[in-house]
Amino acid sequence: MEQKTSAIVMKGKPVAEKLTERLRSEIEGLAAKTGRPPGLAVVLVGEDPASQVYVRIKERTAKKLGILTFDHRIPENLDQGDLLDLISRLNSDPAVDGILIQLPLPGHLNEQEALRAVALDKDVDVFHPENFGRMALKQGILRPCTPAGVIEMLKHYEIEIEGKSVALIGRSKIVGLPLSLLLLHENATITVCHSRTSDIGAVTREADIVVAALGRPKFLTADMVKEGAVVVDIGINRVDEKLVGDCDYDALVGKVSAITPVPGGVGPMTVAMLMANTVRAFRDHASG
Ligand code: NAP
Questions:
Q1: Residue 179 Cβ contacting ligand 1 at under 6 Å
Q2: Which of 34, 187, 244, 245 is most exposed by smallest CB count within 10 Å?
C-alpha cells in the first residue's frame, strides 16, 4: 500500500514569538541599564500599498516589544537631497538604534545611494555594501533579516543543514545571494539558480532542501522535488487579492518532509529578525 508522507508544516509565527519573547526580556534589562528604550526609525516614501502593510506590521511588532518607533512617512515627491538629509539626521540621533528604509523607493530616487548613507551600526536591514561584506566574512553582528529568518526557522524545526545539498532559486541582493552565504556558513552545499539557469528542475530534483525566492507564483511544482525533500517558500505574490508563494503548496505537501506555508511561513521570521537586529544595535550602542 502506498504510504502518504505527513509533512511538517513549518509555520513562522511560533518561531518568531519564541524569539521575540527572548528579545522582550533582553530589552527590559538593557532599557533599565541605559535609561532608554531601543529606537527604530522607519522611513516610508510614497504610498505603495504593500510597503504600507509591511511597515505597519514591523511598527506594531516593535511597539509590542518596547521598541520606540520613529515614523517618517514622506510624500512620493521627496527629492534625493532631502532623503539624504533625513538619513543623516537619523544617523546622528542617539535615540535611534536602527534605521529602516522601506523598499522599493520611488523610481526617481537613488536607492543604492540612500542605503549607503545609513550608518553602518544602524543598518538593521544589512543593505549597506560594507555590512554585506562583513556578513559574507562572518564578521558582522547584524544578519540580513529574511535569510537569517530562514536559517532560524530550519533550526527550530530541527532540519539538518550541514552536509545537505540545497537548491536555491533566486540570487537577489536582499534574499537569494545573502541566503546562499548563510547556508554556506552552515556547511550546506549550495546550487544557486536564476533566470538564466537552463534546467532548474534538474537541479532541484537532486536537492535535499529547495528554497524558492524568485517571485513567481507556484513556480516550484511537485515534479521538481524529490520525495521527502524540505521546501522553503520565500515568495510573496499577490494573485486575485490573495497571497501566494513561489511553490505549489497543495501539490508539494503530500510529497515533501517539511514545507513552509505562505502566508505565515518565512514572513513573520523576517520581521522577528529585524527586531533582533535592532536589539543587537541597541546592545552595541549601550556598551559604548
Ligand atoms: P527579485 O529582486 O525580483 O529577485 C528575483 C530573483 O529570482 C532573481 O535572482 C531572478 O533571477 C530570479 N528569477 C526571477 N524569475 C525567475 C525564473 N522564472 N526562473 C528562475 N529564476 C528567476 O526578488 P526578491 O526581492 O529576491 O524577492 C523574491 C520573492 O521573495 C518575492 O516574491 C518577494 O516578495 C519575496 N520576499 C519575501 C520576503 C519574506 O519576508 N517572506 C522578504 C523579501 C522578499 P536574475 O537574477 O537572473 O534576474
A1: no
A2: 187
What are phi and psi for residue 265, nearest 5 degrees? Answer: -105, -100
- pLDDT (tens digit, 9 = 90+) per residue, 14-47? 999 999 999 999 999 999 999 999 999 999 999 9
Cell numbers for 160, please give them.
Answer: 539538518
Euclidean distance between the first and final Cα of the chain, in Å? 65
For 286, other C-beta atoms within 10 Å of its C-beta total: 15
Three-class SS of residue 168? strand
Residue with cell string 508522507: 5
What's the pLDDT at 287?
Answer: 87
**Same-domain status, 193 and 90:** no
C-alpha cell at 152: 532560524
Kindly report the pTM of this predicted structure. 0.96
Choose the residue to mutate in 172, 243, 246 for probing ligand 1, maximizing ligand atoms within 8 Å of C-beta.
Answer: 172
In a domain, 26, yes or no: no
125 domain-assigned: no
Which domain range does residue 99 map to? 35-120
146: Cβ below 6 Å to ligand 1?
yes
Q: How many Å apart are CA 249 and CA 98, to the nearest integer?
A: 35
